[in-house]
Design a protein that fits this description.
2 domains, alpha/beta, binds flavin-adenine dinucleotide, 8-stranded mixed β-sheet, D-Amino Acid Oxidase, Chain A, domain 2, globular
Length: about 375
């Protein structure tokens, strides 16, 4: 944007900013809220490249989830049990943090649980064999028996499934709207449609070069750009991964009454109003290793067939979209200070509805004395 700013506008940009947060998803909004709650007199600004938040936080499936057994078992191939439990604890505590900031009713929170369904007896037996281990391991976190076997009512899967009793579902755009409203109420300022292009650290401040083409100086910079961080911090282990999602037209009878996980969490589906939301399947194609939005024939074909063969043959698809998650060698988020003025809270590994507000809070705490 090449705008001619007025004296007043330039004068406002010249006034010192204490904290600038890049990105207005769950992580950035939470960081801003926690900083402003601690320092009500300091100037806290969120810079967001979209007119609205334009990341995964409003494009996801709205599962308030922290792990199905097959996904936790898959994690064991590249993470220690302790690392997995630490990450599950963060997701569980993250959901509590989100629910402490946003009223359940405002984000349509539904404690429906999360059900893992299986294609075959072999798949079910493999997960069931680990159920006691995970119930024991997660007891300290959830305070109860997390997983239980249930009869599965979906005829095209194995008739038994495993339910995570403590998961839920919510409306992510309502959750983000509520966090945004809370941030505004506290006095956080927003610079929307403004993309951070680069930054330079100086002795007393960080200079931000943005699409506004006007120098902006901040005392502290917090990067909450998740999958879109490559150009800003290229040395970090963050790999973008696209997830494609469909929603059906309204159905006379919705066969779903919960959130469902399949195949280590790569495929997920849920009821939303009288429709079905179905997404994922990034594991079938290397084309999904991208930060570019879009839909492809390969994934659309896979999900269309999955919908017809496994969930609701009569359902008609109304709309497709996509979103980008951040992955890496491990699933633990990266929350760290790069210097005394610059920090980042990134790589939420497809669980940011649960973990995002906690990552934002922990990031803010790095800047709180
Ligand atoms: C299809 C899909 C389904 C998912 N389903 C679930 C689910 O059911 N449950 C769950 O827990 N998680 C789910 N996730 C993951 C979850 O949505 C993310 O982990 C979470 O939203 C990440 O939040 P964030 O705030 O860290 O990042 P984001 O929401 O991606 O926010 C980053 C923000 O930074 C902005 N930005 C980026 N670069 C710049 C820049 N240079 N300048 C200014 N602004 C910038 C972006 O526009 C964006 O608004 C899903 C993700 C997708 C894509």
């Amino acid at each position: 944007m090449n705008t001619v700013f007025s004296y007043w506008e330039m004068n406002r940009f010249d006034e010192p900013i204490d904290f600038t947060i890049i990105g207005s998803g769950f992580t950035g909004l939470s960081a801003a809220i926690h900083l402003k709650m601690t320092y009500p007199r300091k100037r806290v600004v969120i810079m967001e490249r979209g007119v609205l938040p334009y990341g995964a936080s409003t494009k996801n499936a709205g599962f308030a989830c922290f792990g199905s057994i097959s996904e936790l078992e898959d994690d064991r191939t590249h993470m220690s049990d302790q690392e997995i439990l630490d990450t599950v604890r963060m997701r569980y505590d993250g959901l509590l943090t989100l629910r402490s900031l946003v009223n359940d009713g405002h984000m349509q929170y539904n404690s429906c649980g999360g059900v893992e369904v299986y294609d075959s007896k072999v798949q079910f037996d493999e997960a069931y064999a680990q159920m006691a281990f995970w119930n024991d391991a997660l007891h300290d976190i959830t305070g109860g028996l997390t997983f239980k076997v249930i009869e599965n009512s979906l005829p095209h899967f194995y008739p038994k499934a495993i339910k995570n009793r403590y998961e839920g579902a919510l409306h992510p755009a309502h959750a983000i709207h509520s966090l945004w409203a809370l941030a505004q109420k506290l006095g956080v300022e927003f610079l929307c449609a403004t993309e951070l292009k680069s930054f330079e650290e100086h002795t007393d401040f960080v200079n931000l070069n943005s699409s506004l083409h006007i120098p902006i100086k901040t005392k502290q910079l917090l990067l909450c750009t998740n999958a879109f961080t490559e150009n800003l911090l290229p040395d970090l282990d963050i790999k973008p991964a696209r997830n494609q999602v469909l929603i059906t037209k309204p159905l006379a009878i919705n066969p779903l009454d919960s959130c469902y996980h399949f195949n280590k969490g790569y495929v997920y589906f849920r009821a939303i109003h009288d429709r079905i939301l179905l997404g994922g399947a990034r594991h079938i194609s290397t084309q999904e290793n991208t930060a570019a939005y879009g839909n492809t024939d390969e994934i659309q074909q896979y999900l269309t067939t999955f919908l017809a063969q496994h969930i609701a043959p009569e359902a008609e698809i109304e709309h497709w979209w996509s979103g980008i998650i951040a992955t890496g060698a491990a699933k633990k988020p990266l929350i760290s200070k790069r210097s005394d003025k610059i920090s980042f809270g990134l790589r939420l590994s497809g669980m940011g509805v649960a973990i995002g507000t906690l990552v934002g809070k922990r990031l803010a705490e790095l800047h709180i004395e």
